[in-house]
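Study the following:
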Amino acid sequence: MITENYISNEFCKAINNLYSQNVDIKLVQVQKTKKDFNGDYTINVFPFLKISKKSPEQTATEIGNYLKDSISAVSNFEVIKGFLNISFSNSFWVNKLNNISNIDSENIEHQNILIEYSSPNTNKPLHLGHVRNNLIGHSLSEILKANGNNVTKVNLVNDRGIHICKSMLAWQKWGNGITPEKANKKGDKLVGDFYVLFDKEYKKQVADLISNGKTKEEAEKNAGLIIEAREMLKKWEANDSDIFELWNKMNGWVYRGFEQTYNLLGITFDKTYYESQTYGLGKDAVLKGITTGTLIKKEDNSICADLTTEGLDEKILLRSDGTSVYMTQDIGTAIMRKKEFNADKMIYVVGNEQIYHFHALKLVLKKLGYEWYNSIFHLSYGMVELPEGKMKSREGTVVDADDLIQEMFDTAKTISLELGKLEGLTEKEIEQIIKIVGLGALKYFILKVDPKKNMLFNPVESIDFNGNTGPFIQYTYARIKSVLRKANDLGFAVNKSVGENIEINEIEKSIIKQIVNYNNIVSDAANELNPSIIANYIYMLAKDYNLFYHDYSILKEENEEKRNFKLLLSDITATKIKNCMSLLGIDVPERM
């Protein structure tokens, strides 16, 4: 099977034979020819003009003639200002289609990879930002596994800290014994209500203190509610039984709520860590750092790492009252995970507002003597915004994940009914398809954007059955499956291979090229940790197939050999669509 690497090798041979010089294969740039030009592969000859001592056009022509003579599959070539465009024969591409294989991962370094995603706090329900986090993490896990890596999916639940105490304190003060059952509300949402209530009452106290002459900083530090919350955290870390009982009860409500949302999204984990179980290990590591002189104990008894020589600041690791911060538990969690899984790489899927945090985490681990500190990689993703602007959890202006999912189901049903996509289906089939389409629209709309970029989410736009959307790709798959069912009813079986001498048109060749490129796409997505590479690849494949479907008859094709080719092309396209959508965590319906 001819690949870019094979063409590069032949190019090096051409240079040697034509100009009697050896060149490094890494200097040869072989790319797929742009659609505006004739050809399948393009080679830039400008880096080799010093060797040929001829013009770009003459050099490219001489090399083109050599490649045409040495590679039987090369049917023609064209020179455009020093760029050599090589065309391969129809039989070459049909042969490629006949020999489609699974992921070729021979050149991939297989690793043990641990990937953390979700990482919710137990003081609020999952929201739209969490949805993006979960979808990126799940998709990357599938992509990395498809490339032959051993992947462990983990969640870290932030179940302790001052923010958790805020919800607990508000429930103590104003809850009147309310439970999720009494409120007829999911537990994570009930607890989130009290987090918002705390912030509301806290702001009132701060405003009162400022009106009485306190500075904003003094007011925020000395408001009664925040003092009570800090005292509650100290009691929790001292294992106060009453505080622990309340903490267990309210966290239990939240966990049951999280599980329902995860099930809706199809999100799973191999292991879940809890900050309450790891912060102690981090605390021990920090205290050991004091005894070895690695860390600094300040006058107020807080402990920090001096990172100023690395361009950062002094990073607090334990507060003056001895309580832990986020960094403390992240140190403990990293140590625990490395010991348990000995991962080659630990990927943290966390928003870009935490870039400083993870930079500091690696530096602190390095200071503490952990040589594997560099195995930590922060996959920093951008924020999700709405047309109304940025979301704020403590002010209760977030888009709740459950509400969003339900809105996707409702929108999918409305649009599908308007377009007649559900005609002739049973209620059970309609319900199943609505779920598949709604979730597919949500997941695809988010994953088609490069994780590093901020994005604007629009539910209605995501369920457009035309354009770069999940439903468009799902409908393309269902359309292909319909064609294949009709072919079967007519007695037209899908052969696993067809004759190589079939004439194929440009759109058919374009589809084959994309199918052949599948392995490279999945590899690129893994190397760049970017699911959008998969999403945009599968959109182009679906787009090309729809052009083919509309412009050329399949089942009415009179030439049996050509019909067999079209059916094989359709069958493999459907398989690639399904495989790619699966890597994004998206189901595809057999009927639609």
